[in-house]
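Hi, here's the filled form for the chain we discussed.

Project: internal
Contact: R.S.
Residues: 284
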Amino acid sequence: MGIFNFLNMEKILSILVISVLLFGCGNAKETNNTGLILEVLDSSSLIVNEDSGYIHPIDEAKTITDTLVKSDSIEIQDLIGKFNYKTHSAFISIESKYCSKPIYLRQEVYSKFKEMYASAQKDSCILTIVSGTRNFYEQKAIWDRKWSINIASMDSMASAKKILLFSSMPSTSRHHWGTDIDLINLNNSYFESGQGLKEYTWLCENASKYGFCQVYDDKEVTKRTGYELEKWHWSYMPIAAKYLQKYNELVNYSVINGFAGSNLAEKMNSIELYVNGITKVCPE
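And the returned structure, exactly as it came back:
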């Protein structure tokens, strides 16, 4: 058939093989509801994570897909804390040397925290985590406990305002995201002198090197809205900024419910004033 025709036939066969690999034999590209492209092989090679709702292929493409899902696929249940972080593939349990109780964080957050911890330790600052990820139900327990104490002596609006000085309504807390940590002590006064002042000064000077920022600064100075000053609360911004953006895109007041006083969320502009009430100093 001649060498020219033989070479052309080889090219045609190559194109056919590539086409089959890309589009045939059960292989396809599907787009989930967030616009993320996932490689799907066939129904027998998929694992469904019931806690996160993510679908994972179990061949060599799984590692790539998992990475994309963890970083880009953000769903409403992730934003409002209605999931089990203890079994979620993006979360990890923290070693006891770093925390005062069992705590979970997102894996990237934990990795960067360990780097920050090691650096601070060289300067005689021990950055113990006292609180990390809290899901909706844990936040609800905190909120409902405070509500039951307040409601005996004040009306519902006054009760909510008092709680919101330092605690979030369930479904509105940054602690749902696995990006935020409370460090060392939950009292601002601790950080005003002695070892506490040394630790706070170190954090202010160095935490940003590892991606962390104090989101609730002195609002009397910066004029932000929302919660009071929290010198202990530090947020891992490379992920948290994306979550805040998605929160504003996907969450509305219809999904903020299921706890005492939830009917006040919209009246108090909880999303506008509290979820978005962070310092402008932190990078977006």
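Let me know if anything looks off before we file it.
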